[in-house]
Amino acid sequence: MSAVAADPADVAVYALRLGDDALVLAQRLSQWCSNAPELEEDLALANVALDLLGQARMLLAHAGEQEGRGRSEDDLAYLRDERGFVNAGIVEQPNGDFACTIARQLLFSTWQHALYERLTRSADATLAAIAAKAVKEVAYHRDHAEQWTLRLGDGTDESRTRMQAGLERIWPYAAELFEADALTLRLVAAGVAVDPVPLQPPWDARVDAVLGAATLVRPQTSWRPTGGRTGVHGEALGFLLAEMQSLHRSLPGVTW
Amino acid sequence: MRTASRQWPLWEVFVRGRRGLSHQHVGSLHAPDAELALRNARDVYTRRQEGVSIWVVPSANVTASSPDERDAFFDPAADKVYRHPTFYYVPEGVEHL
Fold first, then answer.
1. Which of A24, A37, A74, B3 is most buried, judging by how many CB atoms fall within 10 Å of its CB?
2. Exposed, middle or buried: residue A20 (CB in 10 Å: 0-12, 13-18, 19+)?
């Protein structure tokens, strides 16, 4: 038993943050469907998107229960506006070319895997169970991204140039993943949440090893965009949500 | 630096099912190399829990019999019924046969 009991309202926000990460990235990756460079990659990216969508559903449903205001996973996914979404900025970044998408996958999956690995020991049994299922899926997402980073980086002049450009584009958004606000720290104290700060050194080591093997250069940047966890987003998220929510908002409760 | 080839090579995919003893040919796919062929095979052919093990083989490494040789290859076996083990008398009381 933990010394401090977690406030359900805090747990709801924490689950919502992780759920929004998964939901927004699932929607982004779905945009590759029928547009990937090869049929096989089309399927691979769609599979990753579906894994993330499954995680998002469980996390949003849990957030709705903890919140206790009767909101379902659909209410949370389809009826919140941009300022209500609390995903990290990295997942809303546009796909760019295939290399840029792989860069985003590499940086995010490496973080998400480290987080879920530790979340399996959460004092919140539902979060722990979701993490235990998801960590195997994300291990594959991370592997997929690493394999492609190696091939694009250590590939042709063209692929290396694109992979490096994708990394430069996405890199600044990774910093936000390791931020811990007061809510996170309260949940860390209660044994519910994972402290993101100690995830950074192993993340750095793993990403650096992949970049080194891929003959890529770790981007140097001091710009650290942030704000996603409090609902402050870039211009890209609104368009993504408009597409994702339009059907449900036009035909409330529609199913097929 | 290598130069990009126009199209990824073709790979044959073999999957061993959950209850299967041997790998079965399930189809083919394109992939730039063996490691990614294995991953693509996982995504294309085992997304509904069809398998517990995958082999991928470069299609170029498969030597196949030619349709032109079919008569010479397979027809001579047609009238050799004695090659089937149906002519043996099994004595009464023999178990485990």
1. A24
2. buried
